[in-house]
Write a structure and sequence with these properties.
7 strands, alpha/beta, binds NADP nicotinamide-adenine-dinucleotide phosphate, Rossmann fold, seven-stranded parallel β-sheet
Length: 244
């Protein structure tokens, strides 16, 4: 099936680096008008140089009010990819309140906040829409040193389910993708050490970590008309980890 997003407006959060950057570039290549939100201005500048049609917005999504203002100023959004995320590794017994707050603020509260503003606009415009939240296989598998991260992504999954339930009547579809490991900057923090990576790889039936494009492909599918009756799912993109 050919996917074409011509005439559609997309917002991608965390688009400065890693998965979000490639999502923004792919959506633009498929014809969408893309607004890329991220924190580091230099990343947004280099993205704009690479793909001049992409609009950029620099905001710290951990700042609830600033994020709301920035997102509310983006008109006519048809597609949202809630991708910005972070991690702080620690043993459960040692997790500090500031790290708990930081990870929940970015991985969960910012997803909630941005989705709420965009969904409200979609409801008011009666336009329908598609939202993909970037969760993680960490939402359904316990991972050492990932207590806060796993909990934040489990929260994203349940938010996704409830949003789909409540927003279906407005023709807004809401799904999550749940990847295992891709060796982006974030992925490398947890998984570049073979002592940690090898046991994880052994749990993945397909025997490899992800390419970023594996995740982008799944996001594009969920945004597209080919998924017009797919809503409320948490889609593992995990080489079979969920079944192991
Ligand atoms: P990444 O390479 O670290 O990129 C994350 C992007 O999000 C960066 O551009 C970052 O900007 C931005 N961001 C983070 N906090 C932000 C904030 N407060 N406000 C605005 N932008 C912010 O990470 P990634 O691996 O691409 O991860 C993207 C998503 O996929 C995350 O939700 C992550 O949890 C999820 N995921 C990743 C993996 C993996 O293995 N890589 C696996 C499963 C799920 P700055 O650099 O300027 O902060």
């Amino acid at each position: 099936m050919e996917i074409n997003f011509k005439g559609k407006n997309a917002v991608v959060t965390g688009a400065g680096k890693g998965i979000g950057r490639d999502v923004a570039k792919r959506l633009a290549a498929l014809g969408a008008h893309v607004v890329a939100i991220s924190r580091t201005q230099a990343d947004l500048d280099s993205l704009k140089t690479e793909v001049p049609s992409i609009e950029t917005v620099a905001v710290d999504l951990a700042d609830w009010a600033a994020a709301r203002t920035a997102v509310a100023a983006i008109p006519n959004v048809d597609m949202l990819v809630n991708n910005a995320g972070t991690n702080r590794l620690d043993k459960f017994l040692d997790v500090k309140e500031e790290d708990l707050d930081l990870v929940m603020d970015i991985n969960f509260k910012a997803v909630f906040n941005v989705a709420q503003v965009v969904s409200r606009q979609m409801v008011d415009r009666k336009s329908g829409g598609a939202i993909v939240n970037v969760s993680s296989a960490a939402s359904y598998r316990g991972l050492l040193d990932h207590a806060v991260y796993c909990a934040s992504k489990a929260a994203v999954d349940k938010l996704t389910n409830v949003m789909a339930l409540e927003l279906g009547q407005y023709k807004i579809r809401v799904n999550s993708v749940n990847p295992t490991v891709a060796l982006t900057e974030l992925g490398k923090i947890a998984w570049s050490d073979p002592v940690k990576a090898d046991p994880m790889l052994a749990r993945i039936p397909m025997g490899r970590f992800l390419e970023v494009s594996d995740i982008v492909d799944a996001i594009v599918y969920l945004l597209g008309d080919g998924a017009s009756m797919v809503t409320g799912i948490n889609l593992p993109v995990d080489g079979g980890l969920a079944t192991s």
